[in-house]
Design brief:
The protein is α/β, with parallel strands linked by helices. The protein has one domain: Ribonuclease Z/Hydroxyacylglutathione hydrolase-like (Metallo-beta-lactamase, Chain A). 19% of the residues lie in helices and 28% in strands. It is built from 6 helices and 16 strands. A 7-stranded mixed beta sheet has the order 6-5-4-3-2-1-16. A hairpin with a 2-residue loop joins strand 2 and strand 3. The radius of gyration is 16 Å and the shape is globular. The protein starts with 8 loop residues before the first strand and ends with a strand. The mean pLDDT is 96. The structure holds nickel (II) ion (NI) and manganese (II) ion (MN). The site of manganese (II) ion has 7 residues, from helix 1. The site of manganese (II) ion (MN) has 7 residues, from helix 1.
């Protein structure tokens, strides 16, 4: 039952928001905090972080980005179109505006940007809809070679087999809520395609539209030998 290597801690802040602490650095994935009904009050301000990863431009994945970059100057890794907007329109510094298939090294982590099947847009202050580039996922590779995959918002897709082949993640954070993303049955297929034995379900239960549960994923994936579905509550962590 080894979830994470020694000295690595992963805290679920609710929905798709996670804080990864490793190699003396703090990585915040999909900053949705103040407006996130699942995020415990005492975790809504994560403090200074070294890296922020944004999978896509929907509000429930980046609403608090300006607050987060105001306390410190983290590297902000996201897809090109969103990065250009953050840098050009909002004055965010240290933007790493990359694209899918690429790898960048940030704060000692290798960050691989993967595909995701979803959409990505947001409303500017005046209400107009802005295209946010394509949605993505990330594989975060530690110095030890350990790899954590955050799928972002996505349906299951066959090329998850390529993520297995090329990156072979050790742990996967997968959406299971249904409606906006895959639900438990599809997530079980994602588990098979990715070949992972440790899964942390996310993007469920935040509001009534996201009914998928970790128990349902366990049932759907009961053919996968040795699979551990890590059923965290928001605010809980694994590793340390
Ligand atoms: Ni989304
Ligand atoms: Mn979402």
């Amino acid at each position: 039952m080894t979830h994470l290597p020694d000295g690595v801690k992963l805290t679920w802040l609710g929905h798709a928001t996670f804080l990864l602490e490793a190699q003396g650095k703090r990585v915040l994935i999909d900053p949705w905090l103040r407006g996130n009904p699942a995020c415990p009050d005492d975790l809504k301000d994560p403090g200074p972080v070294d890296v922020v990863l944004i999978t896509h431009a929907h509000n429930d994945h980046m609403q608090d980005i300006m607050d987060v970059v105001s306390s410190g100057e983290p590297a902000v890794v996201c897809i090109v179109e969103l990065g250009d907007w953050l840098e050009g329109k909002k004055g965010v510094k240290n933007v790493v505006a990359m694209n899918k298939g690429g790898t960048t090294e940030v704060a000692g982590f290798k960050i691989h940007m993967t595909d995701a099947k979803h959409s990505s847009s947001f409303n500017d202050d005046d209400g107009s809809v802005i295209y946010g580039g394509e949605p993505a996922g990330f594989v975060i590779e530690l110095e030890t070679g350990f790899k954590l995959y955050h799928a972002g918002d996505t349906s299951v897709f066959g090329d998850m087999a390529l993520i297995k082949k090329l990156l072979a993640p050790d742990i996967a954070l997968l959406p299971i809520g249904d409606f906006y993303t895959m639900g438990p049955r599809s997530a079980a297929e994602a588990v098979r395609l990715l070949g992972v034995k440790t899964v942390v379900p996310m993007h469920f239960g935040t509001f009534p539209l996201l009914p998928g549960t970790p128990d349902e994923l366990r049932k759907e994936a009961d053919d996968v030998s040795g699979l551990e579905v890590v059923d965290l509550k928001p605010g809980e962590a694994i590793g340390g």
